[in-house]
Design brief:
Elements lengths: L6 E9 L4 E10 L4 E5 L6 H8 L7 E6 L5 E4 L11 H6 L8 H10 L13 H13 L5 E5 L7 H13 L3 E5 L3 H7 L2 E6 L2 E5 L6 H32 L1
Parallel strand pairs: 3-7, 3-8, 5-6, 6-7
Antiparallel strand pairs: 1-2, 1-4, 8-9
Bound molecules: adenosine-5'-diphosphate and magnesium ion.
Length: about 240
Amino acid sequence: MAPPPLIQLKDISLTFGGTPLLSGVELSVSAGERVCLIGRNGSGKSTLLRIAAGLVEPDAGSRFVQPGATIRYLPQEPDFGEHKTTLAYVEAGLGPGDDHYQARYLLEQLGLTGEEDPAHVSGGEARRAALARVLAPSPDILLLDEPTNHLDLPTIEWLEGELESRRCALVLISHDRRFLTNLSRTTAWLDRGRIRQIARGFGAFEEWRDEVLAEEEREQHKLDRKIVNEEHWLRYG
Ligand SMILES: Nc1ncnc2c1ncn2[C@@H]1O[C@H](COP(=O)(O)OP(=O)(O)O)[C@@H](O)[C@H]1O
Ligand SMILES: [Mg+2]
């Protein structure tokens, strides 16, 4: 039997005001699985990741996390809170029993000393500190919203190698196509409130999406013809 998912969202629906953002969305992530979450701007990717992180309550649906599984979430905009140094901020993300050395080690790997004042860091430094914070505890599940934003190419490559070498499950949102192609093994596509998933990485996404859309169009044509026929029959018998 397949192991139970580490995290499972079932039948998630959420509306902010007007049209539903998410309707009946399912997402399940197993140990070591690497999912990329794709969709247009505004399709609800960040919101769905926040639901997975337990930070947003959907209107309907359920969220299951395997007991004991640890999750870390990288928001699009990190919030440093009251921390005086980047090291204090990263250490505050550790769980009980986690190795404090990892905080220093990852900051150093990411080109930070740990002494930086979060109030005066650049966008790139902020993103690197936020990455150190989610990586240091070695969580079972990493939820990453645009992890490569503000990073230079060597750091993106370092991050790719780091994530590649870890066994944690990943859910990735990114505009960086190469990053997604190299890392993802599963693709979840959010489109008009619904989600579709294939067991292939981002490299297969565009061809698959075009097929899905073409099939949808064929179905719509059939439906339109049926309606025309029925109207004809109603009018003329
Ligand atoms: N807390 C909120 N209140 C109202 N609207 C929101 C809230 N969060 C997100 N939205 C809206 O939901 C839509 C989807 O946002 P988001 O999840 O950030 O999409 P994506 O990450 O795919 O670009 C946007 O139109 C956004 O303005
Ligand atoms: Mg977003």
